[in-house]
Design the sequence.
């Protein structure tokens, strides 16, 4: 049995890992791209965390089970449960509130950071803890809760003060939790680690491109742009993007540190390693900022995806792949048959046809009035399910629509349109069960502090 290390990072878009937008100082990620199997046309199955991870950890599309609001469905396969059943020691490490036990993501994990170490997975200073406790006690008084949130937002926007400490655990701290846990294990391990550093609010780091921006200015920028969105000044967007690049540089260093330390504790030569991000990030390229749930453009859904392990050759897969392919790929390497509910397929084995004419999908919100995107790697079709409006374009020239398609473009459109229709029939015919989890006011507040509107 092989050790398995599954690394995910929040909000990291593909073109900031490789290409002209990638920070020049990156060392670890370029090395992995050189040595690991690289999926250069990889897509998130949703443009935001609480839908995206339903696919990342199950191998099924979000709409297969209608539970984005309340979490991981009881009938949805969870990779940690399958691996635990086969004798793996399972450890989950994160500090994203959407991935907390409140949303049932801890299923199958022997150890889950937050659940088994106190708290709900977030990083709290004493001040933040008191602040959130006050909100928890004020659940019945909605006005007070709004007043506390207003205080938080204005302290950030006007004064550049982040009440409490970071809203998530920095990578350096997460790494230590992971290493400590792996040192205590004897059987094969499954480690899932999700890093929040690249998610807003972005903080400056020494020795990166963001050095010289004060933390106070960074906090002010986040709150200002989070409120103004597409109306934000270009100079503010540029400064925010500089902070984003700095976070990527910091994460890259910490990723290298983690791999070095895990090589010492569990040995990586016979370990399956998987890396991806849950979605991308927008900087007003098409009137969108950060990662709104309706965003189906490249900057929000094109993600890095890298795989390495015994008997996996390096190189590049240009055929479209997506998050639903990761669970079957991992289970195959562990010698476990993928359940019938899994929508993806093993993309790292000899059976995968890298030249196949494949279409992958990204789902936004729900299948009644949300959005759906399909791409074959060259063309994209985005459909608004509420209005029926479509955008058909070449993948690298969106949102410039093809309004008068030639013969080959017409064939591509018909194929994508038919695939979207078939996908809708497939996911809406699946049997559904939703969870009954209640979301506390404290959790809701943490999400709103991270910039989520819902």
Sequence:
């Amino acid at each position: 049995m092989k050790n398995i290390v599954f690394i995910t990072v929040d909000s990291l878009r593909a073109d900031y890992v490789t290409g002209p937008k990638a920070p020049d100082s990156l060392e670890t990620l370029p090395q992995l791209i050189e040595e690991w199997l690289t999926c250069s046309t990889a897509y998130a199955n949703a443009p935001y965390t609480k839908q995206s991870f339903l696919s990342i950890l199950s191998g099924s599309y979000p709409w297969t089970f209608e539970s984005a609001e309340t979490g991981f469905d009881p009938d949805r396969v969870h990779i940690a449960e399958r691996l635990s059943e086969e004798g793996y020691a399972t450890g989950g490490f994160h500090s994203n509130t959407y991935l907390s036990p409140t949303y049932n993501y801890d299923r199958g994990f022997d150890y889950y950071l937050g659940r088994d170490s106190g708290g709900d997975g977030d990083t709290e200073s004493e001040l933040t803890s008191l602040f959130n406790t006050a909100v928890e006690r004020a659940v019945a008084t909605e006005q007070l809760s709004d007043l506390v949130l207003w205080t938080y937002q204005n302290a950030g926007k006007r004064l550049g003060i982040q009440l409490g400490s970071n809203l998530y655990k920095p990578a350096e701290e997460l790494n230590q939790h992971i290493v400590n846990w792996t040192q205590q294990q004897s059987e094969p391990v499954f480690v899932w680690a999700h890093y929040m550093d690249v998610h807003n609010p972005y903080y400056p780091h020494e020795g990166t491109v963001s050095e010289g921006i004060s933390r106070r200015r960074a906090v002010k920028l986040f709150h200002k742009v989070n409120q103004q969105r597409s109306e934000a000044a270009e100079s503010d967007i540029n400064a925010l993007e500089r902070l984003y690049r700095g976070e990527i540089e910091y994460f890259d260093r910490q990723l290298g540190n983690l791999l070095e330390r895990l090589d010492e504790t569990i040995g990586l030569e016979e370990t399956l390693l998987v890396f991806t991000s849950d979605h991308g990030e927008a900087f007003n390229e098409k009137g969108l900022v950060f990662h709104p749930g309706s965003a189906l453009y490249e900057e929000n859904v094109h993600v890095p995806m890298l795989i390495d392990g015994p008997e996996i050759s390096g190189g590049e897969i240009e055929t479209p792949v997506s998050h639903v392919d990761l669970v079957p790929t991992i289970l195959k390497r562990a010698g476990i048959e993928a359940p019938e509910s899994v929508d993806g397929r093993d993309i790292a084995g000899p059976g995968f046809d890298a030249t196949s004419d494949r279409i992958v999908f990204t789902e936004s919100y729900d299948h009644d009035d949300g959005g759906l995107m399909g791409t074959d790697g060259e063309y994209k079709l985005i459909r608004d399910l509420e209005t029926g409006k479509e955008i058909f374009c070449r993948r690298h020239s969106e949102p410039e629509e093809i309004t008068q398609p030639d013969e080959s473009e017409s064939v591509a459109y018909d194929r994508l349109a038919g695939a979207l229709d078939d996908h809708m029939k497939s996911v809406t015919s699946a049997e559904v069960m939703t969870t009954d989890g209640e979301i506390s006011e404290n959790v809701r507040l943490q999400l709103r502090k991270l910039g989520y509107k819902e």
Notes: Residues 234-265 form the longest helix (32 residues).
